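pinned: reference chain
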Amino acid sequence: MVIKKFVCSLLIVLSFALIPVLAQSPTGQNAPLNSPYLPGETLTYEGKYSKLILRGIDVADLSFSVERIPETGNFLIRSKAVSKGGVLKLFNFKFDQSIESLVDGQMFHILQTVKRDEQGDRVRDSEALFDYPSGKVTYIETDPNDLTRPPRQMASPIETGVQDMISGAYLLRQLPLEVGKTFDLRISDSGLVYKVPVKVTEREKKKSILGKKWCFRLEPDVFGEGRLIEREGKMIIWITDDKRRLPVQAQINTSLGKVVVKLKKIENKATERPKIN
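pinned: its C-alpha cells
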C-alpha cells in the first residue's frame, strides 16, 4: 500500500510535468497571429525519476499529437502517458493515461476533455464539457469496472479562454515570452478551475535532440495549498526561443524525488505555422 501510494503520487507529478502549465492568453492581450496547433505534429517524451541512489530510472513515455477536424475546423489533441522500465520493476505498478482534448478552432479554448486513467487495477473514465454561453464546466467520472457505482459529478464557473492540461500546454507556446514577465493563467482539471501564475525567469541554452538551443525557462506555480498539486515542490519548463516554441524539457523537484521529462522524437517537422483565419 505504501509503495502504491508513493507511485500514485509520482504519477500525479509526472502528469503535470509537461502538460501542466497553461491556459489562456493573458487578460487584455490580443491572440497571436500564429497557431500553436500543427495538424500532423507528434511530440514524444521520456520521463525519468531520480532520488538518492536511484538515478535516471525510466518512468514513462508520453506522446502528444494534433489533428484538425475538417467539418468544424476544431483541433483534436490526443495525449498518452504509459509506465515503463523502472517503475514496473521496482514497484510492480503500471499506469496508462489517455486524454482527448477538443479545442475550438477560432477561440482556441477547450470544448471537451475525455480521459481514461488506469492505475494498476483502478480504472476511471471521465468527461469534462465546457459550456461558455452558460459559463460552466461539468465534470463526470465513472468506474467502468463497477457500473453500480454512482458517477462522481462536479461543476464550476468558467470564463472564456479556459484550457485543460493538454490544450494549455499548446497555448503556452504562443504567449509573448520574455524574461521577467509573469502570466496569470487558468486551467481546468477534474471539474475545478485553477489560477496558475507562470514566471519567465531566464533565457538559457539547453541541450536537446535539436542540439543546443536557446530556451526560455518558465516556472509555473502549481504546488501548494489550493493549487494543482497540493504538496511542496517546484516545476521548471524549457521552451525553445524560436518560431516553433517547442517544450524540450521539464523538471519537477519534490520530497518524492526528481522527475525529468525530455523531448525524444518529433514527427512531421514544420518550419512555419499555419495562419489563423
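why pinned: The helical segments are 2-15, 85-91, 165-172. DSSP finds three helices and 14 strands in the chain.
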